[in-house]
Design a protein that fits this description.
About 25% of the residues lie in helices and about 25% in strands. The protein is built from five helices and 13 strands. The strands form four sheets. Strands 1-7-6-4 form a four-stranded mixed beta sheet. A four-stranded mixed beta sheet has the order 10-9-8-13. Strands 2-3-5 form a three-stranded parallel beta sheet, with helices on one face. Helix 1 packs parallel to helix 2. InterPro entries: DUF5825.
């Protein structure tokens, strides 16, 4: 097993929370943590790129903490036996960078590049009247989607609220997967875009 680490700048320990278990509902959990004044969350359990329910919920939690601009101290585990085909690590490059990457396939993740190139809003979703906009810069070019079809708008809003991708109509899920907004992890799909809840920097960066 190989591993590598990049240590992000230390922040104040005020408002730090350690989570030793996986929350059943990551979206309200992240909201509650932010409302309580939490500035940093440490996930004790590693987050594996896998189709397992707990791992998907932990990945959801990292996404939601990123949305609330809460620093997240987490470990990414990459083992090729967990899924049939590992996605490119850049599918997750909009999330707050992990402190550590381990597992049999840790070398497939360029953690230094992830940390150096990360900034808030690399893949975000914003709601408007009758539409949803997604801006995706995970691969350093802007892919912009303005969605106003009612079926897609409803699906994107449900996904942003934490509904499982399995609840989305198959034809909608297929097109979202083709755009890279739904990421295949084994037989399950993971919703990638962050719905920004709080800006840590001026909105001009987006």
């Amino acid at each position: 097993m190989t591993s590598k680490s990049t240590m992000p700048p230390e922040c104040s320990r005020t408002g730090e929370v350690r989570l030793t278990s996986t929350p059943a509902n990551p979206v309200p959990t992240a909201r509650s943590l932010c409302a309580a004044g939490t500035t940093r969350v440490t996930l004790v359990e590693p987050v594996a790129i896998a189709a397992d329910g707990d791992d998907l919920r932990r990945l959801d939690l990292v996404r939601e903490l990123t949305a609330w601009a809460v620093e997240c101290d987490w470990t990414l585990r990459v083992n090729d036996q967990r899924v049939d085909e590992l996605p490119d690590w850049r599918a997750f490059a909009h999330l707050y960078p992990p402190r550590w990457v381990d597992g049999d396939c840790a070398d497939r993740v360029d953690l230094a590049e992830w940390c150096n190139r990360w900034y808030p809003g690399r893949c975000l979703m914003r709601h408007g009247p009758g539409l949803v906009e997604v801006r995706d810069r995970r691969r350093d070019v802007l892919d912009r989607y303005v969605v106003d079809d009612a079926a897609y708008v409803e699906a994107l809003r449900e996904l942003g609220a934490g509904r499982p991708p399995a609840s989305v109509a198959p034809w909608v899920a297929e097109s979202l997967q083709e755009a890279g907004l739904l990421v295949a992890l084994g037989e399950r799909l993971w919703w990638a875009p962050v719905r920004v809840r709080r800006w840590p920097v001026p909105a001009m960066v987006v």
